[in-house]
Specification:
By secondary structure, the protein is mainly alpha-helical. Helix content is 62%, strand content 10%. The termini are far apart.
Length: 197
């Protein structure tokens, strides 16, 4: 069976439709098309067409993962969960995770560092809370410890900023103390900051 046309898709720039015997057969990204070395007029066996259709599905999934990785940094676990939701086979999932790691788009250490920096900018957050959030993303403990060790934010100053922002909402001191403890701050620090204010 002969490839009769290779056309760039209108709705998806960077993807190409491959037509075999005058009918649409499968599509590939630009990079996958270049790697496959397909060309118009080339003869393909039914087995090759089945293999290229499988490659097409794998290629689409990889490109979805690339798009997901580009949105914001993700932990390896988050990306694996995303691929599982997209029904990726375990072997394909591992291959995509490896590819994304190789090109620097998937790195738990960079993710943890970015997470800590981002959370520190958005609102006052305790180290304990940051650690819990990173554990929920299945970041290894040694990476969490490293990311928090590199964070030079003064915990008590962070707590003070939170108390200043929230003190009007909590006229009851005990409720306020419980709220601050739920945010992961140490009881001694909470009492000291509340006494100072």
């Amino acid at each position: 069976m002969k490839i009769t046309a290779i056309k760039q898709q209108v709705r998806r720039q960077g993807r190409y439709s491959i037509f075999v015997a005058g009918k649409y057969s499968f599509s590939l990204s630009e990079s996958a098309l270049l790697e496959s070395k397909l060309a118009s007029g080339q003869e393909l066996t039914p087995q090759q067409i089945r293999e290229f259709k499988q490659l097409s599905g794998d290629d689409k999934l990889y490109n979805l993962a690339l798009r997901y990785a580009a949105m914001r940094p993700h932990s390896v676990w988050e990306m694996a969960q995303y691929l599982q939701r997209k029904s990726a086979a375990p072997l394909l999932c591992q291959q995509i995770l490896n590819k994304l790691s190789d090109i620097g788009l998937l790195d738990d250490a960079k993710f943890a560092e970015a997470w800590v920096a981002n959370r520190r900018q958005l609102k006052p957050t305790s180290r304990r809370r940051l650690s819990q959030e990173l554990r929920q993303k299945h970041v290894p403990d040694d990476i969490i410890e490293q990311a928090l060790a590199e964070d030079d934010t003064d915990e008590r100053a962070t707590l003070r900023a939170l108390v200043e922002r929230k003190k009007g909402r909590y006229p009851d001191r005990q409720k306020f103390l419980r709220y601050l403890a739920a945010q992961g701050f140490n009881y001694d620090d909470i009492r000291k900051v509340l006494e100072d204010i």
